[in-house]
Amino acid sequence: MSCPVFRSLLLTILVAPALWIAMPGTPYAASPNSLQEALGAPPPAELAPPPGQNPFKEPLTRSAPFIGLDEGPMRPLGKGSDPPGFKALPMTGPQAPAGPRAPHVPAPKVSGASPMPLRNSTAHTPPRIAPASREAQDARTTPSPVSPVAEGRGAKPSLSDMIGQMIMVGFGGVELEEKDPLLASIRAGRTGNILLFARGAAAGPKNIVSPGQLRLLTARLQKAAPRPLFIAVEQEGGRAQALSPERGFEGGRAAAVLGKGNPDGTRRAARRMGLEMAALGINFDLAPVADLAINPFHPAIAGLQRSFGADPQSAAAHAIAFGEGLAQAGVAPCLKHFPGYGSAGEADALPDISATWRPAELIPFQTAIRAGLPGAVMPGRMRHRGLDALHPASLSAPVLTGLLRGKLGFTGVIISDDLQHESLAGAYGLEERILLAVEAGVDILAFGNNSRMPELSADAIHAVLLRLTQEGRISPARIEQSFARISRLKQRFAGWK
């Protein structure tokens, strides 16, 4: 082989990996490695990837089937301190991005919506939306059937009632008999929220078979409720949607596909999905995913096309637009998985993101809070030992109260990821999970009853939470805080007067 040819081949071998890292669309091309870089300052050296190296391994294999609320999840974060490399963005207006990355599109506040509570929010011009068809308007304005049993709706709630509003449960079955224990729990005010799945841990459908069957099921649930229920599904689009075309629903496109377009298109697509959900009695969507697709081999995020992309500003714009589209249709959105799951380098059920997580993963959440997006936030089931050395994010006061509420200024509803998941149930008893979640700042405790774990009744969960409060381990004032947040969100999306 001649020397020039050999030198050319050697140069190609050495340069190609570096060119791949710099290519637009790769995890590191346009994504800031920290909030400092997002503000124009150089990132800390320890956050930057090694030159010419991919910090992730080869494509990962899933350690568990994609079942449950979601594949989702962090102490020593002293009071008033920040996570490593974090610097809060100013809360007084849009932050101009720096550097050659996708343009940040500030999301306008949803027209006619009461924004999610936040501090120092700024006003935005509502988007112009084309008038909906008569059918779509009917679907949007007609509330889900609600119980005629109005006693207690306007009355001052008891401690038991307030605790009931903090509980969301899943169940097995595509229909409910009049004497079903779950309906009895709903009638008594001990269950305020329901979670539906298309499929379960066992073969066959879990709760959803067809549009007609789903409409009857949600109507039966709401009819039993003295106060309107949140009835939730996970409808992200693509491969993560309970209402799929295979079951006769319209469904929607994956986040990764929507993220390649513009936020206006994402907003329209989400609004269309929301109108379908609202017409079927669904008023709470466990979407959108606000995680960044930093690890291209992540089997539960990038591998399933659940992220809008790796660039924080672009992903934030699309996540906000998706949430706005749902809200315009009367469905509460839920940003997940705080503080960010897209960089995880493993597929464990309770992954440790301490070495891979970067502060830039907070940008979509913080941007949505600043934009006044209505809805909830869900923490993930992952550990970050730099934020909390003891507990995963779903059970972490430093992550939820210290970072999400304290630093990012979020004052809306926090809903847990599945507290019945094997990864949590194997490490914490039921009482400990409930106590830690409430102490951490969780408002709605979600138990999917969609795993290999024994089914938990809503009444059993309610009894534990009531006893913890009566014993003084949880203060009644803390219960009232969650009840106030939930009732505000239900006034906006569930017709609670």
| SSE arrangement, N to C | HHHHEHEHEEEHHEHEHEHEHHEHH
The class by helix and strand makeup works out as: alpha/beta
Strand order of the largest sheet: 6-3-2-1-10
Radius of gyration, whole Å: 22 Å
The major pleated sheet works out as: 5 strands, parallel
Number of helices: 15
Distance between the termini: 82 Å
Within CATH, the superfamily carries the name Glycoside hydrolase, family 3, N-terminal domain
Helix fraction bin: 25-40%
Number of domains: 1
- Overall mean pLDDT score? 77
**CATH architectural group:** Alpha-Beta Barrel
The CATH class label is: Alpha Beta
Tally of strands: 10
CATH topology: TIM Barrel
Give the CA-based shape.
globular
Beta-strand residue fraction:
5-15%
Keywords:
about 500 residues, alpha/beta, TIM Barrel, 5-stranded parallel beta sheet, 15 helices, globular, disordered N terminus
Topology (SSEs and partners):
Elements: H1 3-22, H2 35-38, H3 134-141, H4 159-164, E1 167-169, H5 181-187, E2 193-195, H6 211-223, E3 230-233, E4 235-237, E5 240-241, H7 255-258, H8 263-279, E6 284-285, H9 312-328, E7 334-338, H10 363-371, E8 376-379, H11 397-407, E9 413-414, H12 422-425, H13 430-440, E10 445-447, H14 458-470, H15 476-493
